[in-house]
Specification:
Mean pLDDT of chain A: 87
Strand content of chain B: 5-15%
Helix content of chain A: 40-55%
Number of strands of chain A: 7
Low-confidence stretches of chain A: 75-85, 102-106
Mean pLDDT of chain B: 95
Oligomer: heterodimer
Largest sheet of chain B: 6 strands, parallel
Number of domains of chain B: 2
CATH architecture of the largest domain in chain B: 3-Layer(aba) Sandwich
Structural class of chain A: alpha/beta
Strand order of the largest sheet of chain A: 5-4-6-7
Amino acid sequence: MDNKELIPPGLVYLADNITSKGNLLGAARGAGARWAKDLKLPQQAETILFAGCGYQFSSELESLMSLIRRIDKSAVSTEMAMSLAGFQKRLGIDAAGMYRRLMARDKDDGAQPLRDAVKVLANMGIEVGYMADEEPCCGGLLHYIGLHNDFNRHARETHDRLVAAGVKRIISLVPSCTYTLRNLIPASTGAQGIEIRHFCEIVAENVSSVELKWRGEVKVAYHDPCQLVRYLGLVEEPRSILRAIKGMELVENELTSGWWATCCGGGGGFEAVFPELSQILAVNRARELLDTGAEIIVTHCPGCIMQLETGLKEIKASGVKVFDLAQVVAMAMEE
Amino acid sequence: MSVFTDYKKEIMEAAHNERIRLALSRAIASYRANTNSALKKFPHTVKMAEEVRGIKADAIGRMEELAGQAAEAIESNKGKAYIARTAGEALEIIDKLVGTDKLIVKGKSMTGEEIGLREHLEEEGNEVYETDLGEFIIQKLDSRPMHILSPAIHVPKEDVAQLFSRITGEELPADDIEKLVATARKLLREKYFQADIGLSGANVVAADTGTLFLIENEGNIRLATGAPPVHIALIGMEKLVPTLGDANKVAEVTWRYANYVVPSYVSLVSGPSKTGDIEKVTTYGAHGPREFHVIFMDDGRTELARHPVLQQALYCLRCGGCLYECPVYAVTAGHFGDKYFAGVGAVWAAMINHNVEKAASIAYTCLTCGRCKVRCPMAIDVPQMMVELRRLIAEGDSSV
């Protein structure tokens, strides 16, 4: 077997963005780091926050997805063998223009969890650096697509870049990046030595050192991101954090939470191959979560946030807000 | 149109079909409730599943040896056993045994489905009746199975009523499921006793005694393998385990994860029917079949067993539990698949049926969310298999 043409073009496009542009979205250099421009985080530090493409480029992600969805519903066949440039053109993406417009926007809500994560860690006495423009894409998607030669090359470069920057410890936020940094890259390079922790592990360990209080009483459904729960095994940590917030009541359906959590429909690049089906799955998951009687939904992954918001919008339940765990902890610190 | 375009169209049509979604959402809820209560009643099953993983790990490494051993045991039980290297060889053996113009009653068999056995026998001029109710419905609808245990999972009762009304010429109401079941019983009853041949698969086979385990609830397999004068069983080599004790464990784990506390029937068949009741002279074909033929089919399985990651597909007990946990399957049913469904279906399409394009389509439909693995009694790592399959598709591999 050697049938590269059998890889769905949506995935080929994303893979090419990683290998040629260094990020999932093919965004221009510098676009990802603007969320931190007022935070004055040191670019070189032994402990860094790994922001990840998903949060850094979340606004772009939504634009890209809405375009892919539109194209998928139209007559254009996304599986036609086409050159990457042709594919981009066919999608009608004016990448340069899109990023210019986004850069001009004052606020970037999608990156709010990143600012909140920095704040939460600081309140717990943990200072982090941020590599900004120098932060590499973890490249995990290359692995999931099956492009392991590309992934291995990328993993080596990523590892070298982190070592050269003097990084000893990474606090990572995106579940998929975390698994890639913690498991896939060391397995590929054979090199150990950088400690990889997920943000919620750190917060769970330090949660007793802070006062957390929600404004009023609220019923919360927690949506476990697949990679956080079934790849990284972090079931209890997010829950212990939510339970520590006064005023929050965790409502769960044990058949579809924790190890049994239903995927939001955005797993492993699925949304780029089957955008319409992905949306159906997002609706199903949003319904499951609403059936618990939850008033807000908390999750911990930029992909899940996008999917669940889409799902809620489809069933006209946009009144139910979706928050990242970092956001609710930061909000609970303010009260 | 490419395979992927056709496939995507097919699964999207399924995803927009409210009837499929309704039928499946009911099936999923009842599967989870039944399985959880069955596991609660017999909590030892979880440990036993671990033990079975060990049994399978050993057995899969030496399927040919076990097939030889089982064949020897069956021969000494006065049955006939055959080893088929390929699907073509299996069909050839069956053709020689069946001939043409025969009436055949058949139990549900995914291995039969895999090699298109029913269609082949029909082309050879035989009349074949599927006797499993779901499979009978599928056959009459000219459709294909959408679940390994509940093939007609996607067909609502209204469609069954319409179908049976057409067959019988009698108006049958959709809300009377008992009547629908009774109709199928009546339609098939006499066929068992008129049939020349009964066909079956097996859920698991003990190599030491040559014993086939057939798990069922309807009783059609007992009739189909008991009433006709000849019983032919087609079995994939991955169903072999070393001993009768091992096979017992595999069977119990299979049905428990298939949502049963205990099934109504488990038939153990090791040879032809015989009696020594008249002057102790052993005579074959007493009340059951005089002839018992067992075909152990390789057809790519021993090769698959050598693949370090994809061999996990051979551990599959066909309990169907994974499918109830798959978010994609929940809206597309068996359209997300080929001969088998979802992750294991992709491996089967690639390695057994050598349909690379179909395999790629299925592999890239997997969310890699991993909930199937949580359910699977064999802890088959479907995401890992899908990523490996994608790697083979994208980068090639000399061994494939």
